[in-house]
C-alpha cells in the first residue's frame, strides 16, 4: 500500500472512531446513573442501555 493510501485509510478510520465514540457519549447522556457523571466503559453503557430499555418497556406495559 502506498503512503497516500495509508494516510487516507488512517483518516477514514479516525473519523469512524470519532463517530463511534460520539454515539456512545450521546447514549451515555440518556442513561440514569449514580453518581450522574460516573465514567462507564462501552460495554457498561451497552448493558445499562439494555436494562434501561427493558425497564422502560415494563413501565409502559403496567
TrEMBL record:
<dbReference type="InterPro" id="IPR011598">
    <property type="entry name" value="bHLH_dom"/>
</dbReference>
<keyword id="KW-0221">Differentiation</keyword>
<feature type="domain" description="BHLH">
    <location>
        <begin position="4"/>
        <end position="56"/>
    </location>
</feature>
<dbReference type="GO" id="GO:0007417">
    <property type="term" value="P:central nervous system development"/>
</dbReference>
<keyword id="KW-0804">Transcription</keyword>
<dbReference type="GO" id="GO:0045944">
    <property type="term" value="P:positive regulation of transcription by RNA polymerase II"/>
</dbReference>
<dbReference type="GO" id="GO:0030154">
    <property type="term" value="P:cell differentiation"/>
</dbReference>
<dbReference type="InterPro" id="IPR036638">
    <property type="entry name" value="HLH_DNA-bd_sf"/>
</dbReference>
<keyword id="KW-0539">Nucleus</keyword>
<dbReference type="GO" id="GO:0000981">
    <property type="term" value="F:DNA-binding transcription factor activity, RNA polymerase II-specific"/>
</dbReference>
<dbReference type="Pfam" id="PF00010">
    <property type="entry name" value="HLH"/>
</dbReference>
<keyword id="KW-0217">Developmental protein</keyword>
<dbReference type="InterPro" id="IPR040238">
    <property type="entry name" value="TAL-like"/>
</dbReference>
<keyword id="KW-0805">Transcription regulation</keyword>
<keyword id="KW-0238">DNA-binding</keyword>
<dbReference type="GO" id="GO:0046983">
    <property type="term" value="F:protein dimerization activity"/>
</dbReference>
<protein>
    <submittedName>
        <fullName>NHLH1</fullName>
    </submittedName>
</protein>
<dbReference type="GO" id="GO:0000978">
    <property type="term" value="F:RNA polymerase II cis-regulatory region sequence-specific DNA binding"/>
</dbReference>
Amino acid at each position: 500500500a502506498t503512503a497516500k493510501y495509508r494516510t487516507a485509510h488512517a483518516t477514514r478510520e479516525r473519523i469512524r472512531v470519532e463517530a463511534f465514540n460520539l454515539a456512545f457519549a450521546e447514549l451515555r447522556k440518556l442513561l440514569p446513573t449514580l453518581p450522574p457523571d460516573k465514567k462507564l466503559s462501552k460495554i457498561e453503557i451497552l448493558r445499562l442501555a439494555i436494562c434501561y430499555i427493558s425497564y422502560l418497556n415494563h413501565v409502559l406495559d403496567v
